[in-house]
Amino acid sequence: MTKPGKQDPLHGITLETLLTRLVEKYGWAELASRIDINCFAKDPSITSSLKFLRKTPWARQKVEALYLQSSWAEIQD
Fold it and tell me: What's the domain count of the chain?
């Protein structure tokens, strides 16, 4: 049970949306330098990265943390 006022900041954001935004903001090369994941460095694609991130909790946590640390003022309503 979550405490009132404590909402998940990623609630309602799909992994695909999150990854797409990160790629648009940083590009694949910058993502690979920030998070050492082969699927970002070698022949990167949204599809292959999503497949890897869905199977690899530690990698997904790193991607989610980078997303939360990033400024999104330019794309939010």
Answer: 1
